[in-house]
Design brief:
The complex is a heterodimer of chains A (151) and B (299). Chain A is an alpha+beta fold. Chain A has six helices and five strands; from the N terminus they run H-H-E-H-E-E-H-H-E-E-H. The chains are: A alpha+beta (151), B alpha/beta (299).
């Protein structure tokens, strides 16, 4: 009985440990990442309506959004976007849109701002429930910082 | 008897003659300014038109105030709200990206690409994913009809010769005019750089001397192509002719909060489409001192 209880507790611990993805992201997470200094230069907020246009997401499927993009587009493709969608299906579509966004950015900046390419290639895209996070910034520190959001 | 008949006949003829040949002024006298809806009197003669409404060439008063292509569109009352831009297309490069993201104009379509030049607007190097198709800028801008098209491109071409820029821009303008026959085409002068910061952050050729030369091309082509010219450069030029250092991080791109002057300038400088197309039909009258609009088109 004791062994079974211990196994059960271990299983629960493992599940919650891997389930950082089960905790949804919120708009406030964008500010947390910004405050950690993981992005270059002036990161300016972008309206939800424009995020939908630029990412190719149905605006009606977005419940809440926080997005910041580098204002100096000549040299930086840094951005952080948190999307809270209406449901998981919408989140899946948004996650795919984020991947496509990064691919397009890599293609577009390759000749214009080649210094931005490694940061784009190390982009962090996470989906948790009906929320999606996209972050392009410091390639070394960003993954750990995102993982730490819900610890 | 015979003589009497002849006399009666003669009198009838005399009575008929004035009514058949002369102008009937009866309707004018009535003060209606035209009795028939088609402007003719019952005899088929054309009523005199009001001033400015005769066929072209037959009046001294143009139907609209003349706009001299190659001069800046005059300041006008600001548009009531941004629904004015709902049928507008904005074409450009990374600066136009900034206008979309932070300028505050909530309407309209945007086609911009970082790094694009007028020499690459039909290149597959810069494509737009529209409904699953990869379209060049030339293809993408032709998909839908707009009432206004705003164009600003030139910063990425500063490393090109003036001649190459002029040729590329000329071709692109012809493509826009052909694809958007119902649109007022606005071409914008290039805002200046900050030479001090440009020395630090930009290429050697990215300097205001070249920007000025390109703006002369823009003015020239605005006149040649008979399209509207906007002095967007003036919205950003400091007293020293530079882009102020405190509104840019690299000498070229504005800080995110500094795109609103551009949007405000567009809201306050519009031309009546009827006037625009009327003046396009007239062609370019000679520009005399005092006849050009705001700034006389000097960038």
């Amino acid at each position: 009985m004791r062994r079974m209880t211990l196994c059960l507790l271990c299983a629960l611990a493992l599940l919650t440990g891997c389930g950082g993805g089960e905790t949804p992201y919120g708009a406030e997470d964008a500010q947390v990442l910004l405050d950690e200094g993981l992005f270059e230069g002036d990161m300016a907020p972008v309206e939800q309506r424009l995020v939908a246009v630029i990412y190719g997401i149905d605006e009606d499927a977005i419940r809440e959004c926080a997005c910041y993009m580098a204002a100096n587009t000549a040299s930086s493709a840094d951005e952080v976007t948190i999307l809270v969608l209406t449901d998981e299906k919408a989140a899946q579509a948004a996650e795919e849109a984020c991947r496509k966004r990064v691919e397009n950015q890599i293609r577009d900046v390759a000749s214009y701002a080649p210094g931005a390419v490694p940061r784009l290639e190390a982009a962090v895209i996470r989906r948790s429930g009906s929320t999606v996070l996209l972050a392009v910034g410091d390639p070394e520190a960003l993954p750990e910082a995102v993982d730490a959001l819900h610890k | 008897m015979r003589m009497r008949k002849l006399l009666i006949l003669l009198l009838c003829l005399l009575a008929l003659l004035p009514a058949g040949c002369g102008r009937n002024t009866g309707n004018q006298d009535s003060g209606n300014g035209g009795s028939a809806n088609d402007g003719t009197d019952p005899s088929g003669n054309r009523e005199p038109d009001n001033a400015g409404q005769t066929d072209a060439g037959q009046t001294d008063t143009p139907a609209y105030p003349l706009y001299y292509f190659g001069s800046f569109v005059e300041q006008s009352d600001p548009v009531g709200d941004d629904s004015f831009f709902a049928d507008a297309l904005f074409l450009g490069d990374s600066r136009t990206e900034g206008l979309q993201l932070w300028g505050g104009i909530a309407q309209g379509d945007y086609l911009w690409k970082r790094g694009i030049t007028v020499l690459e607007v039909d290149s597959e190097k810069y494509t737009f994913d529209i409904d699953g198709e990869q379209l060049t800028m030339v293809e993408a801008m032709a998909r839908k009809q707009y009432a206004k098209v705003y164009l600003m491109m030139g910063i990425n071409e500063l490393g090109c010769s003036v001649e190459d820029y002029e040729e590329g821009l000329s071709v692109f303008l012809d493509q826009i005019i052909a694809a958007q026959p119902q649109a007022v085409i606005y071409i914008q002068t290039l805002p200046p750089l900050n030479d001090g910061l440009a020395e630090k952050y930009l290429n050697d050729y990215e300097r205001n001397a070249q920007v000025d030369a390109f703006n002369e091309v823009i003015v020239r082509l605005a006149r040649e192509k008979r399209i509207a010219l906007l002095n967007t450069a003036g919205a950003y030029r400091g007293e020293d002719g530079q882009l102020p250092a405190d509104i840019t991080s690299d000498g070229c791109h504005f800080n995110s909060s500094q795109y609103t002057p551009w949007a405000d300038y567009l809201r306050r400088h519009t031309i009546d489409p009827a006037r625009y197309f009327y003046c396009r039909e007239l062609g370019n009258p000679p520009v005399t001192a005092g006849s050009a609009g705001e700034g006389g088109g000097q960038p």
